[in-house]
C-alpha cells in the first residue's frame, strides 16, 4: 500500500518554513482507495513567491486547522504505508520537521518518484513533475496545489508500476535491495531502528571498538547509501565485513555534527576513516608588525602567539601564504606585503563577531542548539529551551559544553556561516 503525498509550504526551508497544504492519496498498487487533503494554518506569513506560485494566501489559511490539529489524521492514514512523493526528500523533510515541533516522530519507508523515474525511464531531459508528466501525456490539474500534484504523482506511479518488468518497486517495498547490501554480521533490526535525523554515527567491530565514524542529515539514509556504494568496492566490502553494531548521537545541527565527527576521529583514530594518522601541526602563518608595516610570516607554533592558520610543515605554510595572496589579490601588480591584501587575509580568518551565539535547530521539539564565540575564540556548543532561559545570556552560557578551538573548527564555523548566514540566527552579546 502506498501513501502518495504532496505538500505546499510557506517557503523552501523546512527548518523555519511551515506546511500550508497537504494532500495524501492511498493507493493499493492498482487503484485509489482513500484520500485526505486540507489547507493548514502555518501560524507564519506565506512568502510572496509562494503566494504567486500556489495562489494560497494568508487569508485562505486563516481559518484552516494547524498542523498539530491534523497530525493524528496524517499518522493514521499513512500508518504501515510506503511514503511516495515526487522529490520525497522535500515533502518528507517538511513532515518530519513539523512532527518534530510537536514532539512526535514520523518514520515511513520512502519511494521518490524522481529517483525511480531516473532508473526506470532514462534519457528524459528533465525529471520535474511538470516536464515528466508532459512527456508521458499525464495531465496535471491544478498545478502547484497539493491535491493536483498528488493526483499527477499517482498517475506517474501507476505508469511506473506498469513498466516495472524487473519488479524494482516490489524489491524496494520488500526490502530486498536493502537486504542485499547489508553487512553479513549486522542485524536488519539495527538498521530499521536507526533514526532519520541529523547526527553522528559509529560502526563497531566484533569487540565493540569503533572502526568508522560518519555523519549525515539523515543517519539511516546516509548509512544505507554507504552500504550500497559501488565505488571503492574492496574497501567498502572490507569495512562491511567488520560491522557488528551501529550507535549514533543526534545533534540537530550540521555544524555540531562536524565538530563531533572531527574530534572523535582524532580521539579514536578509527581503522576505516580517511583522517586516520593525520600529522600534527607544527607551523603557522602569523601577522606581525615590523618597522611599522604588517607582514605575514611563517613560524613554528608556540603557546603564546595565535596563528591565522596552521600547517604540518614549513614548506606547506610558505605555499599557503602564496595561495592566500593569490586568492585575495585584486590588482596584478600589487606587492605581497600590501596592507590591503594582508588585511583581507586576516579578516578572512576572523569570526563575523567577537562575542555571539549561532542558534539553530535542536535535537527534538522546541530545543535549540547554540555555538558560542567569546572574545573571538570558539568556546563550545550546547542545547537549550528558549522558554526556560528567555533572554538570560548567563543561563545560555551555562548550557554550553566547553570544547577546544582548532584550526579545523574555526574554518568550519566561518565556512558554514558564510554559506548559510541568511538562515542562521545569531545572538550578539
Compile the SSE list and pairings:
Elements: E1 2-9, E2 19-27, E3 32-39, H1 48-54, H2 58-61, H3 67-78, E4 82-85, H4 88-101, E5 110-112, H5 113-120, H6 129-136, H7 146-163, H8 168-173, H9 176-181, H10 188-192, E6 199-204, E7 210-216, H11 219-228, H12 233-241, E8 245-250, H13 254-268, E9 283-290, E10 293-300, E11 309-311, H14 314-328, H15 339-348, E12 356-361, E13 368-374, E14 377-384, H16 386-389, H17 393-398, E15 400-402, H18 407-420, E16 425-428
Helix pairs in contact: 5-7, 13-18
Biggest sheet: strands, sense, closure? 5 strands, mixed
Beta percentage is: 15-25%
- The low-pLDDT segments are none
Counted up, domains total 4
Topology, number of strands: 16
Roughly what percent helix? 25-40%
The first-to-last residue Cα distance is: 53 Å
Let me know the CATH homologous superfamily of the largest domain: Ribonuclease H-like superfamily/Ribonuclease H
- CATH architectural arrangement of the largest domain: 2-Layer Sandwich
Number of helices: 18
Average pLDDT reading? 89
Q: Helix/strand-derived class?
A: alpha+beta
Assign the CATH class of the largest domain: Alpha Beta
Shape: globular
Q: What is CATH's topology name of the largest domain?
A: Nucleotidyltransferase, domain 5
Read across the widest sheet, the strand sequence of neighbours is 3-2-1-4-5
Amino acid at each position: 500500500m502506498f501513501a502518495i503525498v504532496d505538500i505546499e509550504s510557506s517557503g523552501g526551508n523546512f527548518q523555519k518554513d511551515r506546511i500550508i497544504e497537504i494532500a495524501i492519496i492511498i493507493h493499493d498498487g492498482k487503484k485509489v482507495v482513500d484520500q485526505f487533503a486540507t489547507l493548514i494554518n502555518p501560524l507564519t506569513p506565506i512568502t510572496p513567491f509562494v503566494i504567486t506560485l500556489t495562489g494560497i494566501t494568508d487569508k485562505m489559511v486563516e481559518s484552516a486547522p494547524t498542523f498539530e490539529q491534523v497530525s493524528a489524521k496524517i499518522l493514521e492514514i499513512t500508518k504501515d504505508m510506503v511514503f511516495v512523493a515526487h522529490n520525497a526528500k522535500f515533502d518528507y523533510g517538511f513532515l518530519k520537521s513539523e512532527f518534530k515541533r510537536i514532539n512526535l516522530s514520523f518514520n515511513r519507508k520512502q519511494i521518490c518518484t524522481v529517483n525511480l523515474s531516473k532508473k526506470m525511464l532514462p534519457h528524459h531531459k528533465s525529471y520535474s513533475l511538470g516536464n515528466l508528466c508532459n512527456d508521458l501525456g499525464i495531465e496535471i490539474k491544478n498545478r502547484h496545489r497539493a491535491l493536483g500534484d498528488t493526483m499527477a504523482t499517482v498517475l506517474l506511479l501507476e505508469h511506473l508500476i506498469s513498466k516495472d518488468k524487473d519488479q524494482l518497486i516490489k524489491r524496494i517495498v520488500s526490502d530486498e535491495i536493502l537486504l542485499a547490501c547489508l553487512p553479513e554480521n549486522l542485524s536488519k533490526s539495527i538498521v530499521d531502528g536507526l533514526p532519520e535525523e541529523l547526527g553522528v554515527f559509529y560502526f563497531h567491530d566484533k569487540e565493540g571498538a569503533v572502526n568508522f565514524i560518519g555523519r549525515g542529515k539523515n543517519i539511516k539514509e546516509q548509512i544505507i547509501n554507504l552500504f550500497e556504494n559501488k565505488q571503492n568496492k574492496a574497501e567498502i566490502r572490507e569495512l562491511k565485513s567488520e560491522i557488528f553494531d551501529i550507535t549514533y548521537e543526534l545533534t540537530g545541527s550540521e555544524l555540531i555534527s562536524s565538530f563531533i565527527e572531527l574530534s572523535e576521529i582524532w580521539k579514536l583514530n578509527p581503522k576505516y576513516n580517511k583522517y586516520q594518522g593525520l600529522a600534527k601541526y607544527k607551523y603557522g602563518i602569523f601577522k606581525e608588525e615590523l618597522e611599522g608595516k604588517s607582514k605575514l610570516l611563517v613560524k613554528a607554533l608556540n603557546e603564546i602567539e595565535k596563528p591565522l592558520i596552521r600547517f604540518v610543515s614549513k614548506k606547506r605554510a610558505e605555499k599557503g601564504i602564496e595561495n592566500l595572496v593569490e586568492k585575495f589579490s585584486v590588482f596584478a601588480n600589487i606587492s605581497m606585503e600590501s596592507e590591503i591584501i594582508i588585511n583581507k587575509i586576516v579578516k578572512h580568518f576572523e569570526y563575523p563577531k567577537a562575542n555571539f551565539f549561532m542558534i539553530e535547530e535542536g535535537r527534538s521539539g522546541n530545543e535549540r542548539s547554540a555555538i558560542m564565540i567569546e572574545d573571538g575564540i570558539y568556546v563550545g556548543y550546547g542545547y537549550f529551551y528558549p522558554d526556560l532561559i528567555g533572554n538570560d545570556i548567563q543561563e545560555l552560557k551555562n548550557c554550553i559544553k566547553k570544547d577546544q578551538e582548532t584550526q579545523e573548527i574555526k574554518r568550519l564555523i566561518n565556512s558554514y556561516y558564510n554559506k548559510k548566514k541568511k538562515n542562521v540566527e545569531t545572538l550578539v552579546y
